[in-house]
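ping. complex inputs:
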Amino acid sequence: MKHMTRKATRHVNQNEGLIFEKSSAGKAAWKLPPLDVPEVDAGKLLGAAERKDLGNMPEVSEIEIIRHFTRLSTWNYAIDLGMYPLGSCTMKYNPRVNEAVARVEGIANGHPYQPEKISQGALRIIKTLSDNLTEITGMDAITLQPAAGAHGEMTGLLMVRAFHQSKGNARKKILIPDSAHGTNPATAAMVNYAVENLKSDARGMVDLPSLAAQMNEDVAALMLTNPNTLGVFEQQIHEIAAILHAKGGLLYMDGANMNALVGKVRPGDFGVDVMHLNLHKTFSTPHGGGGPGSGPVAVKRQLEPFLPAPVVITKGDGTLGFEYDRPHSVGRVRAFYGNFGMFVRALAYIQANGPDGLRQTTEDAVLNANYIRKGLEGTYDLPYSTPSMHEVVFSDKVQAKKGVRTMDIAKRLIDYGFHPYTTAFPLIVPGALMIEPTESESKEEMELFIEAMKSIAEEVEEDPQMVLDAPHSTRVSRLDETAAARKPVLRWKPGA
Amino acid sequence: MKHMTRKATRHVNQNEGLIFEKSSAGKAAWKLPPLDVPEVDAGKLLGAAERKDLGNMPEVSEIEIIRHFTRLSTWNYAIDLGMYPLGSCTMKYNPRVNEAVARVEGIANGHPYQPEKISQGALRIIKTLSDNLTEITGMDAITLQPAAGAHGEMTGLLMVRAFHQSKGNARKKILIPDSAHGTNPATAAMVNYAVENLKSDARGMVDLPSLAAQMNEDVAALMLTNPNTLGVFEQQIHEIAAILHAKGGLLYMDGANMNALVGKVRPGDFGVDVMHLNLHKTFSTPHGGGGPGSGPVAVKRQLEPFLPAPVVITKGDGTLGFEYDRPHSVGRVRAFYGNFGMFVRALAYIQANGPDGLRQTTEDAVLNANYIRKGLEGTYDLPYSTPSMHEVVFSDKVQAKKGVRTMDIAKRLIDYGFHPYTTAFPLIVPGALMIEPTESESKEEMELFIEAMKSIAEEVEEDPQMVLDAPHSTRVSRLDETAAARKPVLRWKPGA
Amino acid sequence: MRYLPKSPADREAMLKAIGLRSVDDLFTPIPAEYRLTRDLNVPRQMSEPEIVDFFRQRSRENGDGYTSFLGAGAYFHYRPVIIDSLISRGEFLTAYTPYQAEISQGTLQSIFEFQSMICELTGMEVANASMYDGSTAAAEAVMMAVRLTGRRSVVVARTLHPEYREVLATYATHQGMPLSIANYGDDGRLSLGELEKSITPETACVLVQSPNFFGIVEDVEAIAAVAHKYGAMLVVSIAEAVSLGIVEPPRSADIIAMEAQSFGVPLGFGGPYCGVIATREKNVRQMPGRLVGQTVDKQGKRGFVLTLATREQHIRREKATSNICTNQALVALMVNIFMTVYGKVGLKELARQNLAKAAYAVAQFAKHGKVPFAGSPRFNEFVVQTSEDPYAINSRLLGHKMVGGLPLKKFYPELGNAALWCCTELTPRSAIDTAVGLVAESERSVRSAKEEVEEVTR
Amino acid sequence: MRYLPKSPADREAMLKAIGLRSVDDLFTPIPAEYRLTRDLNVPRQMSEPEIVDFFRQRSRENGDGYTSFLGAGAYFHYRPVIIDSLISRGEFLTAYTPYQAEISQGTLQSIFEFQSMICELTGMEVANASMYDGSTAAAEAVMMAVRLTGRRSVVVARTLHPEYREVLATYATHQGMPLSIANYGDDGRLSLGELEKSITPETACVLVQSPNFFGIVEDVEAIAAVAHKYGAMLVVSIAEAVSLGIVEPPRSADIIAMEAQSFGVPLGFGGPYCGVIATREKNVRQMPGRLVGQTVDKQGKRGFVLTLATREQHIRREKATSNICTNQALVALMVNIFMTVYGKVGLKELARQNLAKAAYAVAQFAKHGKVPFAGSPRFNEFVVQTSEDPYAINSRLLGHKMVGGLPLKKFYPELGNAALWCCTELTPRSAIDTAVGLVAESERSVRSAKEEVEEVTR
Ligand SMILES: Cc1ncc(COP(=O)(O)O)c(C=O)c1O
Ligand SMILES: Cc1ncc(COP(=O)(O)O)c(C=O)c1O
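pong. complex structure:
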């Protein structure tokens, strides 16, 4: 490895087995207070339903648990360690004050069914966040019930369907650009819509003629991501909306990329009828290794009657409450009110930023993406030269000639101390390198990234095999995914 | 490196510069609320005393700070990562509930001068811990004021001096065994006592004849660590006390090794007149990279009048309060009342254990030390065959023949995923390996340690140079301490 | 803004490098007429202490300090301190989905352990990495059964959590999945007779919850027998995970849809929680959600990866088993740590305390009021019938800083003044006694009022 | 016991391996007559929730929720959340003193940064890794001056924190270090005349605090001039670290002994806090406490180590500069993070807010009561003279959930009913107004009482 990196090195790291391998009968990390009511005979109370044995559940002590998970954690990369430029994922800084306020007693321990009289704090948080998000999106109403983006998509399409039904024709199809994220078509299918692909033009935007041609009274809506997954803003958004609306269709916006727009432009102002947000992207709630998320859906007035129940309202006496009587509602998409803990964090994020901070955040996010684009142009193939917003998508075309693909470059990037970008998405770019730095990266960190990417490009020329064998610095490397899928081992078994 | 280890491997690790190297004018991680009183002109208020410039203090953002310290932290070894067998340091598990309760609002934010009326919670904690510690040590009274062990030693010797003064002769000397920790002689000097060394016998215990010979009316006290720093219990403790008391001397016990005794035997019962405890050892308060500690001093009735002021008392109305009027007190050794936050943690530890848990803890600590002794006997030289309590001390005699010393073995141990033992202490063992596993190590972890130590012994035979060059797995290796001391660079300077 | 790691000079230099004059040049792709020329109307930038104060204030308005007898799908159990100590480590908290296995083994191994423990506890063979919550897990489990059986209609026990039923209805509407509701009998359990009436050869699955919404353990074996007789699958929803410590898991179920909130997840006013689906190995390829599998790396070292991704939306798009992408990973980690802390013996003892508290409360309530379905086996919830409207009683309880049981009228009008009460290991006996006392008082006053009336009418 | 990672079987196997029959065999070295044959009389083993409840209860008895005007060496400033997020990482929390540099670089580099920032703020050339607290730091600084000058007597300003004076007295007694106290003048600052009277050619150092115990900035330059004229060193104690944001540091001091609690350390009823000593390079070899130095490893890579250890007890034993071993490392890390968060600009703004709050309070109090030493420059503390006993006033304030200023009688009898008040950025104007209102009331009632008396006597 000729090029060594300024960004990272290697250090001693603890091995750790499965927790089951540390278990031994009689070890315990738990202790219960003395029981203040009479002991009971479970056999008597439960009869045949009494459980006698808990199988191979582990028995370990507290320090072993602390060490187990602390050791495991050191095997992870994280935003707290460095740049995490996963395109479309908006891996931004997760402020710690958000974690602190989410753990304040009355907020962490509120029961979803406690009387509204003693739930005004939670209701106020829901109301305030709802108001802020409708202002930010330029929409009229919102539901915070969906648990993630995909869940929001489903909720949004259910409302689209309900809207058309109320007009007498539920319609059959959803148009989805070929650049769209997999959840879009998957969601359309769940709501029992047929998916019709819409091709992109040479600039990576919706091809207007095709849209005009494909649009008709069978089309319920277009699911558009804007900026789209190429990081490109749909400049003819106005015409797109016009074409849809002319035929009674609705414009659904996948808001996964709102980090490019907050404070600079509002979807509600450019013709969007319904959209979802990802609080775990744009609004800094932590990804936590895959979740939890929160996918609020904001709509224009005409769709408000169809919002899931309940919705928070201000009652006659000025207090807040839940309204359940929503005759036109699409119904519940989740028990209770959604991922409330994420609302708390998102609101704290908005408060910490204010209008000026939110705008600056968006500007920095776009600035960072363009800085990287500038730095790597020429080194990596840029399939679409259209201006980038918050992310930039390259392809491995140049490196592929040496047999090195985007995933190989990604793996080598790990040796340089970075988390890889998003690979092989969007599908319209063969061998895509989808890079989203977010606003959270310093100039220094991005220069190290650019340096690393350039260095890898050189390595591809000089020693492609070394790149193909990467990563070289990790405790494990190139795990066998084929074997994993062929004979799945999905759980530990004794003596396995 | 023929022998590779089951315990550890290497993994990619982030580099990180000094915080000053990340500073840039205009970055900020702070924000103050709007000022609710009139702005002021500092020049007017402070005149010449107004400060205009804060020199090279850094300017960075919050995420850079999170990353800076998170990256730095990954360069540390810690109890949470694995066995930390530093002899004499008692690196045991630091329970997380202790950290939680220390942060409960009224406990974390109590002001030392707030009226006693609204300080009953803190006073109750001090009182309860004091009672528990006197019971555990078998002493009559205690002060929690000292900030660490050495501070406790000073406080104890001040009381010894005050006691003798009250008898008309302050005396001149303190006897200290050659096996003692450096703080013992250093403390004696601070209290202006002459230090007289006391030699150990062939079994590593106080040499009774020498003690008898050296003991006289000039000797104020013997500072004894029991078990001593060889991990050996002074079996003739009774005779030792008798010899001292016969000549009016006092027996001071350095309680650093109380982890070998709690719940099994009480110093107060075997003749100790005054002793200190290290809450940051025996009672699980975290070491935090070097502190804070807490060094309570427990005494027999005859020394009680000399305790530092104030002491906590129960007042007529049953509430608790501070008594400042202590005519015979040695005076204050610290502002306020000591490291209160450590009292909270130590009390929580005692509550979590209870009498049975404390006893079991001691038994496990001694069991672990003897398991290691058994495992390494024969491989490493055991200078004293006397039974071990909570720690065992080997020497590098065998390995030294190959030019490999205790520090080299220690460095190699790092490659095996362990923190080294204590090296080159106690002084009576040339090339000492002082190993204290504590009760917090599982059988599995200790077997890995024994395996590692044996493997290193083999490596010393096969390839001593490789051991001399260790560690091989760390981001930096064998830092130049001589250069550091010759031309000290003790602070960052711009352009340095 | 304090989260942004850039100085004005940095921004200048970067714009220059890109070849732009001003930040606005970055936004030219956005049609000018849409660009926002004003500040957003959101609160001004707040300092950290102001933010903390804001939420402390909200907390005070939110039932802080009340003793609650509420359960009904969200349970108040003790959360060992180490859960938050560990999940707060940035390496877990700020990592994304473990797509890059080499630098995600921490998350991957912990999910593998989570899947394994869920299997141990449910008696199933495979479990996924998590679903949004118990309600969506139940709905997805039903759709999974529909795919597996090739049938479309579904029978749902009326003793299933009413909000779970609503969610299923929403999911089912446009899937052309006819739902029929089977009622409960006098014992508060799904009536087998009703079940027989609703089930047909077109039934894909029967969905039942156990312990059910009344806290009663359903006769899963008998229900399974009926379902399987018709070639339908049995989907069992478990809302109170702690019950698994002492209640036999529904081993005869084909799919289990669980809400694991009880395992170390804060009530948090309803979320985030942790759904999970477990089933038999043969059904795994129709399972929604992420799965972690064990494998080896190029040196043969054991490691873990996301697997069977061909079920998922990012590969199969409209043909995927579900659209779920982001799940509840960090919450699943809380659950994982909780299960590890209590383990084989602790979970049983914890469940036993819950059982004992509820049994004690039932005995006390029974002395003064009616406790329907008394004969049926139950875990830590039970129904109490009062003569007075439970809302009235509850508002009196509020005065004692207590939250009474959930009035059932809204979901089960036929039950009149019944309310659903819950006791966990955290419910002090004294609180139970106080609550029982207030209910007893209410009964007495109603009775004497009645007597007066009788007096008069006599 | 839940912290112990052993099963009965483990213990059995280990004893067997060692060749022992029972655990008691391990304790045979202890003479039988001393071995404890009973349980210790300490509380029974408690569960985690019980422990948490115990301390929550203590918290409620400990002034939780009171607004306090207390300072006097312990200051209530806002602690940015990230301090605890970062110091709670096990890698910092559960590491020992960084003796093994290869696996302690995190601690070592952070201490190096701490030393550097303390130098930047104090204007000194070197700073150590921490001392126990401000009081012991002052005492050790004085002993350091004694070693450096070879003289033994010490002049202490009476405006030094009284408890610091007590601690110094304790340390000095047996060192044969005569202490003389120099009184303050009408301006509340050390009187130069008094100083001239006490200082002699045998004086090793003058010890003064600035801002002093009354919150007043001392004329350090003038004091330094006098001290240096006699060849004595000037040791300056700084108890309120935040003052360094806007008050010129005592650059003419030879040694600075600081209490850094104000920088992100909880009040914690008096500890743990963070003392630190800073001085000129030429004095470093007489400096107590640990020092971290920069160096290179065998590949020439920058790294950090503990250095100049020949000053310390573990090498020099009775000849060491101090007996200090364990210091306040983790607290120094809090301080380090706090200094990094506020940095060059934030510290100044923070200090400015403190200055403004105190100035406002002084102005308000001055309208109704006497504010002695009014003409002297002060930071965030000030003295208020009342006609009524301040203890009486304070007990009235307690009724409003407020803690009034510290009555000074105890330490300065000549000041009668004076009390020391403190305002920081966290003191709301409303609280100041309420407190001033109550003091004003007290003044009015005393006055009218006096008038009545005069009435009568007329
Ligand atoms: C463009 C886009 N749409 C939708 C989603 C799905 O959102 P979620 O993962 O929150 O369900 C994602 C998530 O990666 C995305 O990038
Ligand atoms: C035997 C012994 N005595 C005294 C001390 C000093 O205690 P402290 O570091 O708390 O001052 C130590 C600490 O290592 C020790 O091991």
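The longest helix of chain B spans residues 340-376.
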